[in-house]
Specification:
Organism (chains A, B): Chitinophaga silvisoli
Oligomer: homodimer
Helix content of chain A: 25-40%
Pfam families (chains A, B): Glyco_hydro_92, Glyco_hydro_92N
Domain Glycosyl hydrolase family 92 N-terminal (chains A, B): 11-145
Largest sheet of chain A: 8 strands, antiparallel
CATH class of the largest domain in chain A: Alpha Beta
Strand order of the largest sheet of chain A: 3-4-5-6-12-10-9-8
CATH topology of the largest domain in chain A: GH92 mannosidase fold
CATH superfamily of the largest domain in chain A: GH92 mannosidase domain
Shape of chain A: globular
Keywords (chains A, B): Calcium, Hydrolase
Structural class of chain A: alpha+beta
Subunit structure (chains A, B): Monomer.
Largest interface: A-B, 28 and 28 residues
């Protein structure tokens, strides 16, 4: 069965393409389905349970339909793909088309169709079968090939892509083009050492980091869901990002590997702002999807700016983000103008919360997503910090002062007695909750998806300030220790019934959701790097294996895989927005990253092994250093980071 | 930190022993704790979070306490063990004892103690340190060793074990004795082929299959929790079984590998009956723990009888089981006399259920475990079937007729319209529930731990009868297909909040709980062996890896690991109580099982590989056969089973 998704990428140039049937299927958003069968079964009756995935690569896929004995092969192009079905000789060779889409078949093998995605976005398909068939789509030949391309503009535009990418090409040629493209990408990082399993897990993660954003430009034009228009533009237009998920590690990784592509993505953000009047939170094919809380494009733009990327119209970007910060509601999963809650925030520096059981009276609040009062305050503190820093970089000094002040909002919700960020009501009184349990599904009255144990650490932009709140380095360290060992206080299934996103648990720490990623690196900020080193190795070993368990939570557009790529190489960008990395414990003994500027960044870990996971010494470009930090500049200048590894903790 | 458990086994002769600190700890029932430390921290303040398990075998274990830099080593004996702590040279060398137990220390290095387990069972310890210490248990030497033994009779009895097993022996000698004992056990099965990971998973499972039952005899005497007396007896007395979990695969596996040990275990069951007046359900150290439903010793005894084991006093066993069947309540998690519900069952052939929301009026019903009305009916149908067959074997013909009739009770709850076993009320009316969801936590109003999708198949003793209920082989097969692909109808976390035991999900099939084990083999009974073969390979591959994810649900005393051992070798005892095995798909190309009778059973799978998982042909002792079944007699006579494997399904 072919499932054509509107935005599933399997090609390196970040072009849209179809993606074939998956073992672990998610079928949200599939728009076209095509099934090869050996009988005349009607669509609804044919359940293809009996398939076996025989081989899968980003550039080639082979599936065996056991009961029908049909071999299905696939090779992707940029905006297109080719299927090949090999039927058993003495069977009916038939294709079923999903009944819900508009298909047009003519006698000469051409097939076209259109389908509606998300209720508002048209997806078009143009394709050709390579062999004759009758009116019931029954074929004479035992091998049937289908080439097709998709478009968001028209069938004619799909046909243009078809002509450019597929016409006159055979399966092997299309596969080889895709293979070569992926090999270029995968060869950008070379590794030595580690186990085969670690290398597999690493390159699988690296592959996943190329899933989004997706370039939807088609030959000098693109359809934008942000104003529902087709635009002529030679610069690639990228959609499908999840800023809350990707600002921490995915965008920073791309700023290293593909800075020019990142620049195109940021330019897309600016165009989306121009087209819709708002800087998007989660730009999708159909427009902005106001997911989660905060709007962390602020952090991504600051990060890119400080890392020396060229942002096409940075003032326009700043204008859009400032408008978001001051004129848009902070309510989770909501776009739109300020509400009473936002006015309250602007005056008081925190989002006010309801007491347990108290009825919501603000009509704009999403009935499921709730106020997320603590999470909103922490998230927008980070946004305001980033805006303040960017304002300063751009010379908007009074803005800088305003946002610097706003960035300290997080302190208003620190409850020193509880040692948690806790909610307050409108009268500035603490609301006495159990931060590990209260707040309804996902703790959303106060936190979001994770509980207060995770939100305790959401001040990545001001770690010294956070350490101070905890009362010093030792208490900060103890609290980190406690986090990784704390009891849930109930059965795990009871906990997950309320916090289903808090997967990959170690104590109260969740490896399976983005707000946790930077936490294991925080030991580095209190002189206990060995605890970071041990924890990172342990987390990679437990949660990111090369097997069917895959990853411990939502991939979320590369967010989680970027954690794996960074951590396996041996460092991590704890504070997105600061051009600084902190060192963990690499699983490889040598890693070379070939940069777009022609230079190589090299990481060498002498004596690195499963046992030798503790950093004994650090050199950058041959010079010893006494801490576990280095800069983006050192990296992109082709620096060489040397680590001496050993089996006992050192005091670095 | 040493934790001494009352019944944790790490030695082959099924003797009790202490077990050291585990990575994945369960500390229920620990009775003594001892911690090596390098400072004067009080017990409560010292949390040993920072340990790293460096090496673990059944016979040796090494743990590194990172912060204290103490090396902890351990080697087990039968009822004893030896610890060795290596402290850093210039640190305090100190031992902390758990404050809750009664410790006696004298000046010459001896240590003894006693502790209460389960509120009613005394556990005694006797040990010796090998080096001098002061009153605060601070040692001069940098290496401190502790040898100790435990007993359920007295400190003096523990000292006898100590003298016999430990006195005069060094660490290496104790370790070597344990190693040799485990190697004897592990070498009982030799395998060729498969991957290293499959061999690791297999031998880990085989190890786990030796966890229980546990021989608690001490030099010609044992303490019995069934009458709270010490008995003189030279025959080993075994406790700690979970019949609901182990009758399917664990006892059958032991009947192949260790039939004499199994005979001792069954003799222990008979003694428990004599001592307590009831045949136990889950015999534990402290007496019977009436867990789950049914009392499947019936099935185990029948199975052993038919497989030619010598049951010491089979008439006495039968007497006890008949008494259980006719005079004991069937209520889950309850011992005791008949209730009104049991009388109802005896007259009407099913356990009556309450309608959703209906209030319980029978006082004996456990408020959490509920009636489990469908599960009870299915479980006792199996018990009655086994008792009927055993009665026949023993010549109790009128009993045989009675129990054969009772064994058909399951048919009373088959709802042909729904194709599920469904509950009925007292008036013989169906209760219209969603069998996949209703019944409260674990579906316990009607089912138990799993939902109706699993209980649909709980007629392993009459598969032809079950096929008939489904309306024939094709519908039976389709329903199996559906089971493995059916939607949960809700988010997984919502499902697990109600059915936390239904882990290892594939569709509505649960690999993580005992009632599921035989289900993938049922395709063999409708001529679709290839679907069994594919499913078994897939289940082993997904759920039983050689990594930290371990097993997908409760181990339950070897129940789950026995499934892995059987399935990896290539066959399974679908109907415990019938001396017959059905063939799946071995992961190994050759397996030899060395039997106690001196013969070898050999399984050869020609061309077996990850791809060649389908059985193309079967030979037993060189003779071709046309089905996928063979007998226990063929196995214990040293038969050779030859399978021809291929990559395409055959019609065997």
């Amino acid at each position: 069965m072919i499932r054509v998704y509107p935005l599933r990428k399997d090609y390196t140039d970040d072009q849209i393409t179809a993606f074939p049937l998956q073992v672990v299927g998610h079928n949200a958003g599939e728009v076209f389905c095509i099934k090869p069968v050996t009988d005349s079964t009607r669509w609804e009756r044919k359940q293809l349970y009996d398939h076996e995935l025989e081989e899968i690569h980003p550039w080639y896929y082979r599936n065996w339909l056991v009961e029908d004995q049909i071999l299905v092969e696939y090779a992707p192009g940029k905006k297109c793909g080719m299927y090949r079905f090999t039927y058993p000789a003495h069977a009916v060779h038939r294709i079923l088309l999903s009944p819900v889409d508009k298909w047009v078949l003519n006698g000469n093998g051409e097939i076209s169709g259109s389908s509606l995605y998300h209720g508002d976005t048209k997806v078009y398909l143009y394709g050709q079968f390579d062999s004759p068939y009758d009116g019931a789509l029954t074929f004479k030949d035992g091998v049937v090939a289908l080439k097709y391309a998709i478009s968001y503009i028209s069938v004619a535009a799909a046909k243009v892509s078809f002509e450019q990418e597929l016409a006159g090409k055979g399966f092997a040629e299309i596969e080889e083009t895709a293979r070569a493209a992926w090999h270029r990408i995968m060869n950008q990082i070379s590794v030595e050492g580690g186990t085969e399993a670690q290398r597999r897990a690493f390159f699988t993660a690296l592959y996943r980091c190329h899933e989004r954003m997706v370039n939807i430009s088609e030959e000098g034009a693109y359809y934008s869901g942000f104003d529902k228009q087709v635009h002529a533009d030679v610069r690639p237009f990228y959609v499908d990002d999840a800023a809350w998920d990707t600002y921490q590690a995915m965008h920073p990784l791309r700023m290293i590997l593909h800075p020019h592509q990142e620049e195109d993505m940021l330019a897309s953000y600016v165009r989306m702002y121009e087209q819709s009047g708002w800087m998007p939170q989660f730009p999708r094919l159909f427009g902005d999807h106001a997911c989660m809380n905060g709007f962390h494009s602020t952090i991504i733009f600051l990060d890119a700016y400080r890392k020396g990327l060229h942002i096409a119209d940075v003032e326009k970007a700043y204008e859009g983000m400032k408008k978001n910060a001051l004129q848009a509601t902070m309510l989770p999963w909501r776009n739109g103008r300020l509400t009473w809650l936002d006015e309250f925030y602007n005056h008081n520096g925190y989002y006010p919360a309801l007491r347990p059981g108290e009825k919501e009276i603000i009509p704009e609040v999403d009935t499921f997503e709730k106020r997320q009062a603590v999470a909103v305050t922490l998230g927008h503190s980070y946004d305001d910090w980033a805006l303040g820093k960017l304002a300063k970089e751009l010379g908007h000094d009074s803005d800088a002062l305003l946002f610097e002040k706003r960035a300290r909002a997080y302190m208003n919700l620190w409850n020193a007695e509880k040692e948690f960020f806790m909610p307050k009501d409108e009268q500035h009184h603490w609301i006495d909750i159990d931060p590990g349990w209260d707040g309804g599904p996902g703790g959303r009255d106060y936190y979001d998806e994770n509980n207060g144990w995770t939100y305790q650490w959401q001040v990545a932009f001001d770690i010294p300030g956070l350490i101070q709140l905890f009362g010093g380095r030792e208490r900060f360290e103890r609290k980190l220790d406690t986090l990784f060992h704390a009891e849930l206080g109930r059965q795990r299934y009871q906990f997950w019934a309320k916090f289903p996103d808090a997967t990959g648990l170690m104590g109260q720490f969740s490896m399976g959701n983005e707000p946790g990623f930077h936490i294991p690196y925080l030991y580095n900020y209190v002189g206990k790097g060995w605890k970071t080193q041990r924890m990172i190795r342990s987390l990679l070993d437990i949660w990111f294996k090369d097997n069917q368990f895959g990853i411990p939570g939502d991939e979320d557009g590369g967010g989680m895989s970027a954690f794996v790529v960074f951590s396996s190489i041996g460092f991590y960008p704890v504070t997105a927005g600061e051009p600084v990395y902190t060192i963990g414990s690499p699983v490889f003994s040598k890693v070379v990253v070939h940069l777009e500027n022609g230079k190589d960044f090299t990481m060498v870990a002498h004596n690195c092994s499963a046992v030798n996971k503790y950093v004994q010494g650090v050199k950058m470009n041959g010079k010893e250093r006494k801490d576990l930090f280095f800069t983006h500049e050192e990296l992109v200048n082709g620096g060489t980071l040397e680590l001496e590894m050993g089996d006992k903790p050192s005091h670095l």
